[in-house]
Amino acid sequence: MSLAERDHNVIWHPYTQMKTAALPVPIVRGEGALLFSEDGRTYIDAVASWWVNLHGHAHPYIAQKVAEQLHTLEHVIFAGFTHPAAVTFAERLLQILPRGQCRIFYSDNGSTAVEVALKMAIQYWNNQGTPKKKIIAFRDSYHGDTFGAMAVSARSAFTAPFWSFLFEVAFVDVPVSGKEEETVKQLEALARGGDIAAFIYEPLVLGTAGMVMYSPQVLDQLVEICQQHDILTIADEVMTGFGRTGRTFASDYLQHKPDMVCLSKGLTGGTMALGATSASEKVYQAFLHDDKSKTLFHGHSYTANPVACAAGLASLDLLLKEETQQDIARIQQQHKTFAQEIQALSHVKEVRQQGTILAVEFEDGATSYFSDLRDTLYSYGMDQGVLLRPLGNIIYIIPPYCITKAQLEQVYQTIRGMQEVVSGQKQHPRPDLTMLHD
Ligand SMILES: *Cc1c(COP(=O)(O)O)cnc(C)c1O
């Protein structure tokens, strides 16, 4: 039996309709931006394995640091105990995080980093005897798959079965170009209404919504309004953190800084599962009390896992290297040139870029040609040896920073081919997914 068939017998995959999905691609090795499959094929990982990988797969430096940590201390309880990796990593994160962050709370992934921030925000008000009921979020946002994170995310088909279990959230429109004033008005009205604990947002780029982008100027305005009305602000930098937007954090583009920041994905360079929520002095102070009920009662068995922290420290070393910063600048430049070219082509509705993130949105009408454009584009990319996961009619690139100039050119070539498929200049068979199953 092949690995994929063995998988099919025992595994339940994320975001996968197990009845109709094609068999998974068995990956046996990774190196740089490349993934190698069991049957000898090579794929360029143009989506950084779900937006987590920064420096390439199986990076020798991260591997070495992780191995050293494994031989020294693999894990220790983090209540009443500490260890060098957690402390050093927190010190270094606070040095590079947006101004005003003073504490790091570790958890396991992006969703838990968001849960922690929401709990901090809600309890912040409780601890002061002025409980507040509402959270504000962007209508199309995505903050994770646990219940609190789902509650502050878009009410979409993905969460429909759970709607009645999600707490109420006041949604405002994403302030995309031309709609800025509307969002500002919506937020101002909510802020004046009172009873708002916090505003949570994906700064500059809403990933899962389809790499929807908006300007730092309008976000700065929104954060300022929150600060004027004593509303806590939570920057969910789970996707945008660690150089993705061209600066270390998307919040670095703003004058007004958040009260809390959520981190995961690139936090360990894509090596280990780890989440972190940072908090400002103001937030932290609200939990210091002789009354023990004011404690933040939250924690996970693997809080601040030393191996994950070691991976994070190693990834940070690599991120801050001059070569990596040059790679980030080069990717931005390459994207810019390609964006100009592709946006002139037919059936391309919009091209968006923020730093190393590039999104190409095909005409909505294109989807009517193919009932399953997404699957067609995905399978076209895989046939070309390029891993791109379209979000509906939107194709995007979030590469590991080590992707070479030539590899990135190959990704662009694949997107050019996709444009030809969408515009009908090129035929690509609709993937017959059912064939792959008995
Ligand atoms: C991916 C993501 C999350 C959730 O992170 P997980 O590690 O998948 O739980 C939260 N917020 C944003 C902005 C994300 O992109």
From TrEMBL:
Pathway: Cofactor biosynthesis; biotin biosynthesis; 7,8-diaminononanoate from 8-amino-7-oxononanoate (SAM route): step 1/1. GO terms for biological process: biotin biosynthetic process. The modification N6-(pyridoxal phosphate)lysine is found at residue 265. Pyridoxal 5'-phosphate binds at residues 110-111, 236, 300-301. Keywords: Aminotransferase, Biotin biosynthesis, Cytoplasm, Pyridoxal phosphate, S-adenosyl-L-methionine, Transferase. Substrate binds at residues 50, 142, 265, 299, 389. Its main location: cytoplasm. Its EC number is 2.6.1.62. Its cofactor is pyridoxal 5'-phosphate. It comes from the Bacteria. GO terms for cellular component: cytoplasm. It is found in: Cytoplasm. It holds the Pfam family Aminotran_3. It catalyses: (8S)-8-amino-7-oxononanoate + S-adenosyl-L-methionine = S-adenosyl-4-methylsulfanyl-2-oxobutanoate + (7R,8S)-7,8-diammoniononanoate. InterPro entries: Aminotrans_3, BioA, PyrdxlP-dep_Trfase, PyrdxlP-dep_Trfase_major, PyrdxlP-dep_Trfase_small. GO terms for molecular function: 2 iron, 2 sulfur cluster binding; adenosylmethionine-8-amino-7-oxononanoate transaminase activity; dethiobiotin synthase activity; pyridoxal phosphate binding. The record marks 15 as: Participates in the substrate recognition with KAPA and in a stacking interaction with the adenine ring of SAM. Homodimer. Belongs to the class-III pyridoxal-phosphate-dependent aminotransferase family. BioA subfamily. Catalyzes the transfer of the alpha-amino group from S-adenosyl-L-methionine (SAM) to 7-keto-8-aminopelargonic acid (KAPA) to form 7,8-diaminopelargonic acid (DAPA). It is the only aminotransferase known to utilize SAM as an amino donor. This is Adenosylmethionine-8-amino-7-oxononanoate aminotransferase. It comes from Pontibacter ummariensis.
